[in-house]
Write a structure and sequence with these properties.
The complex is a heterodimer.
Chain A lengths: L1 H20 L7 H21 L4 H23 L8 H19 L10
Helix pairs in contact in A: 1-2, 1-3, 2-3
Chain B lengths: L1 H15 L11 E10 L2 E16 L4 E11 L9 E9 L6 E10 L2 E10 L4 E8 L4 E7 L5 E2 H7 L13 E8 L2 E17 L2 E12 L11 E5 L6 E8 L2 E11 L4
Parallel strand pairs in B: 9-10
Antiparallel strand pairs in B: 1-2, 1-15, 2-3, 3-4, 4-5, 5-6, 6-7, 7-8, 10-11, 11-12, 12-13, 13-14, 14-15
The chains are: A mainly alpha, B mainly beta.
């Protein structure tokens, strides 16, 4: 039982760290919570038998690291569009083509006013 | 009596043809689109809705432009650069030309509709990644609009005169197919947004196709003023759900 919870805690902690460095860093919270719960259970069970393995403490460390990265990214990373030259070019080209197409149409006298 | 009835019908039909008193040239609305992943909302893309004028030698049209671009942090994983345009009559938003140029990851599609309102037909042109061009002409019902002009047209309805539960139907042409959609007015709600606290008209959008899922899962909140801009939206589509939040608004008409 103790071993199972240790493995689960470790797996969740690794997933949490991986997610925290990806753009989906918000999702790291879920495995981090799971890792903490499994880790605490493994820690409690280990304490009962008298020996707490270092690996459990290591899962806590990993979880804390992932939570720290997630929090940092949530607070300091700005969600913005930095490279939109492709879109700007597309827009200009599209408008020019559209005007050509519209010129061919039999439009009534339409104006903005 | 007969003439009176004809006059009333004429007046009603005339008044239902919505006139544009909400959308100005130079209006720019910026939104943040979030997608729900395992119950956590992630900001995915920036959506912009912009209007400008498009001058030809014969007429001056209103260009309605909607763009969607993924935030830079996603670019290495999945990049979206979508451009939707509609060139419409500025007075009643009748579309003359619609263009859709979408670039989503490895997927590319270009679609162009040229509307002919005299014969109620559309001349369409489709292009995909392999540059294979497909031209097709098809008939539409009178009053059918493209998706962009429909989004703007929703802002022309007179919600003040509508009672809670009242519905408005319209037809959209998308992927060369006509889709019947409906807006249901659900009443007023006050929302706290990035552009301040706004009293809004709450609307439910439903469609005949399965694009929009559920009855009251696709909701829009429009400011309850003369501009009727979309400030918040919730959507549920086959691949998940998310929301659209206003970030900034510029160049409003009223």
């Amino acid at each position: 039982m103790k071993r199972l919870f240790t493995i689960l805690a470790m797996t969740a902690a690794i997933i949490s760290v991986i997610l925290s460095v990806l753009p989906v860093s918000n999702l790291a919270i879920l495995p981090a919570i799971a890792s903490l719960l499994f880790g605490l259970t493994a820690f409690y069970l280990s304490k009962k038998t008298g020996e707490v393995k270092k690996i459990i403490q290591f899962t806590f460390l990993l979880t804390i690291v992932s939570l720290a990265i997630t929090t940092y990214k949530a607070v300091f990373t700005k969600t913005e569009v930095t490279n939109n030259t492709e879109l700007k070019e597309k827009e200009t080209e599209s408008k020019e083509n559209a005007i050509e197409d519209l010129e061919e149409l039999d439009l009534d006298d339409i104006s903005l006013d | 009596m007969k003439y009176l009835l004809i006059l009333v019908i004429f007046l009603i039909s005339f008044s239902t043809k919505a006139q544009n008193n909400a959308i100005a040239t130079g209006e720019k609305l910026v939104y943040t689109a979030s997608y729900n992943m395992s119950g956590i909302l992630n900001e995915i893309a920036q959506v912009t809705m912009e209007t400008s004028e498009a001058k030809t030698s014969k007429a001056t049209l209103l260009r309605l432009k909607c763009t969607a671009t993924t935030y830079s942090k996603w670019d290495n994983f999945f990049k979206i650069v979508d451009l939707y345009e509609s060139y419409v009559n500025p007075k009643n938003l009748t579309p003359y030309l619609y263009k859709r140029d979408i670039n989503e990851g490895d997927y590319y599609k270009f679609m162009k509709y040229t509307f002919d309102h005299k014969t109620n037909t559309i001349k369409s042109q489709q292009r995909k990644k392999n540059n294979k061009e497909e031209n097709k002409n098809f008939s539409i019902n009178a009053g059918t609009k493209d998706i962009v002009s429909t989004l703007y047209n929703i802002r022309l309805f007179d919600y003040k005169a509508m009672s809670v539960g009242a519905k408005k139907s319209f037809t959209i042409v998308f992927d060369r197919e006509e889709i019947k959609a409906q807006v249901t007015y659900l009443g007023k709600e006050t929302l706290s947004t990035n552009i301040g606290k706004k009293e809004c008209y709450k609307l439910a959008i439903s469609s005949s196709e399965s694009v929009l899922q559920g009855k009251n899962n696709n909701l829009l909140w429009l400011t309850a003023d003369e501009n009727k801009i979309i400030v918040y939206g919730k959507f549920k589509i086959p691949v998940g759900n998310g929301e659209l939040k206003i970030k900034s608004a510029q160049g409003l008409k009223n």
